[in-house]
């Protein structure tokens, strides 16, 4: 492993986006409660469980960053990061998986007949599902950003981007295994079920699905990555400009 300085590794593990995601998750749960209170029955509870699962890859990536800071032995660090990396890769599809829950809106009989009296519920549920999906995408992005930094730090920039490319399409295949084959993350504890599901997922339909979601994941990551870098460059430029041309006092 080559030692070099990477700013992201040195930044706080818990960043502002973490707090935004926490607040958004609380809001999502609150919207479910409001909906249940108005309709007098709880629906879409599975969204809360799926959101919980979407938090797991971020918990693993944050653990990996913390592990780097407290571990001094190189051999222990290598083994630990490999284990955490595999765990993260198995859990990561849970984050973009939330976007597939829109299928429950598409095929719900409740929305087949659209009228003005029920349109508020339609829009409410649309915003509800979008917030859950957006939260899942951001959770996936942040956790992937962590491991992107780790791979780039201990390898090189090129390897980091190859990692992003490969993981994006593996994530797309993982979403297929979850949505279509109905595998769960804990099926890794049942090797025969896991192998059977993966073999079942090797077909033309799975390939197209994987390509679609792989491209989707990759575009989301690149977009947020560029936005983040642009914000950092803008902040540095503004700071440099302020130092070069300080405001005059009153």
Distance between the termini: 54 Å
Task: Give the proportion of residues in helices.
Answer: over 70%
Point out poorly predicted stretches: 1-7, 234-250
Helix count equals 10
Main structural class: mainly alpha
Assess the beta-strand content as a share of residues: under 5%
Task: Tell me the Rg in angstroms.
Answer: 21 Å
As an assembly, this protein is: single chain
List how many beta strands DSSP finds: 0
Sketch the topology as an H/E string, one letter per element.
Answer: HHHHHHHHHH
Explain the layout of strands and helices.
Blueprint: H1 7-10, H2 16-39, H3 46-70, H4 74-91, H5 94-97, H6 103-106, H7 119-154, H8 157-179, H9 191-200, H10 204-244
Helix pairs in contact: 2-7, 3-4, 3-7, 7-8, 7-10, 8-10
